[in-house]
Amino acid sequence: MRVLAQIAMVMNLDKCIGCHTCSVTCKQTWTNRSGMEYVWFNNVETRPGQGYPRRYEDQEKWRGGWELNRRGALKLKSGGRFRSLATIFSNPVLPGIKDYYEPWTYEYKNLTDAPLGDDYPVAEPRSLLTGKPMKIEWSSNWDDNLGGGPAGVEADPMVAKAQARETADRAAVQVKAAFEQTFMFYLPRICEHCLNPACVASCPSGAMYKRTEDGIVLVDQDRCRGWRKCVTGCPYKKVYFNHRTGKAEKCTLCYPRLEVGLPTVCSETCVGRLRYLGVVLYDADKVTRAAATPDEKDLYEAQLGVFLDPADPEVRRAAERDGVPYDWIEAARGSPVYALISTYRVALPLHPEYRTLPMVWYVPPLSPVVEALTGTGHDGEDAGNLFGAIDTLRIPLEYLAELFTAGDVGPVRAALERLAAMRSYMRGVNLGDPADRSVPARVGMTPDGIEDMYRLLALAKYEERYVIPTAALGDARRLEESAVPDGCGLDAPGGPGMLPPEPPPGAGPFGDDSGTYEGLPLVTIENFHASRRRQTADDIAARPEEDL
Questions:
Q1: Where are the domains of the chain?
Q2: Prior bond to 48 cis, omega within 30?
Q3: What pTM was estimated for this model as a whole?
Q4: How do the residues of the chain divide into helix, strand and coil, expressed in percent and rounded to 5?
Q5: Dihedral sign, CA of 515, 521, 526, 527?
Q6: Which one of 3.30.420, 1.20.81, 3.30.70, 3.30.310 gives the CATH number of domain 272-465?
Q7: Nearest-10 Cα torsion for 528, 531, 536, 539
Q8: Residues 369-386: pLDDT tens digits?
Q9: If you ran DSSP here, which 8-state letter would residue 489 be given?
Q10: pLDDT tens digit string along 200-220?
């Protein structure tokens, strides 16, 4: 057993209202610059729908993720070394700008500078790539709120797979088609920071790597040569090509914030408070074996088997032996992510059939069944009604299974039954009715377990939703100084590698260290520590003097 730690995320889809606040704040923070106009590290998709880029889930076309060869071993779906070498200068398996969208702005000068006249001026759209007039045909959320539309349903690869797995019962297919016109839900997506990332294995130059200390997958911009194999290899299509710099870029899980204990920008600004961040301990020796599980429907359980119980004394000793810091082990014990994934088993992975072992999991949506029952005049939160209605959920179980469990309906039904049991049991508790202990027992849980899960999903405070250990100060300083060539951090006058006592004036708009030093970017850990103190202080008087 070789223990490693991973920062993971869980999103509760019952709470997502599709406001796109997470997308906008992420865009403003990380991709608001030339060459990244079309890039959304975080996007919110309406399901059913095509997704972003268009139909990214069709791996028969895009060749992302892993598959098993004849011997049962893992191989990249895009091909091995020889195929990669043969296509290194011309990779045809890439989404084009039309699959993403051609970003645009409007010619506002036509409005502000137009002379007086009888005609109304028009701000025509212009491409941000070419600067020429264009017709707007697609965008990252073009089918927003249109999940019930025929075009969105027909173009969704998961709808086709769910229907293909159906039996010959024509009635079931007709019912499915009927309520597909009315159901929809929102699916926020970021990079999965997988345990077995296909993008890392696809990179010919070794620029993509997975950090051993926290599992975050990053791109070394100095080593990236722009081969774009990582874009093909990623089945979630969350690696993007910056056409200005010729480099690949992707979600960094806001690692400078995580290193000081702050959540990601998308989590911090989420209106619905649907995101949870925490540490998961896993056995690195089991990763390849789990990803090579022959039956796709067993991949969910196989990945659960990779995770380790942080309360187990043997696991704790092994983690200390393998260099996992003590505060990380303690953070894993209080991790909301581990609780939702392994303890309560209500969170599910996105597309485990890609065999990348994703680490952003989702609590499937239950709300429509409650609303549907209430609309028929029945009690929408009564245990008997809820359990009976799950198999006729307006969001079909088969569709959710194609998203989260490679087509296996069982785990999806089990997760929804636990959520239904929680709603029914806690309604009785909150109304002062006698506790019905048969409801938790029906889903294999105890009343205390149900109440703990309810607190986490419904009432959890900031520090309970984000249990993030901070990076060691020494490591943070070392990482910061490594950005400067030959810098050894010795601040004695005349010392080798000594830097100027103060950064150049006007180095950046957000403090002296927010810009560059001799053209090189600095990630200043102290600034993020100060930001954390400012954000978490109750009032101005409570903030440290040096931050005011």
A1: 272-465, 495-547
A2: yes
A3: 0.84
A4: 40, 10, 45
A5: positive
A6: 3.30.70
A7: 160
A8: 655 655 555 555 566 666
A9: -
A10: 999 999 999 999 999 999 999
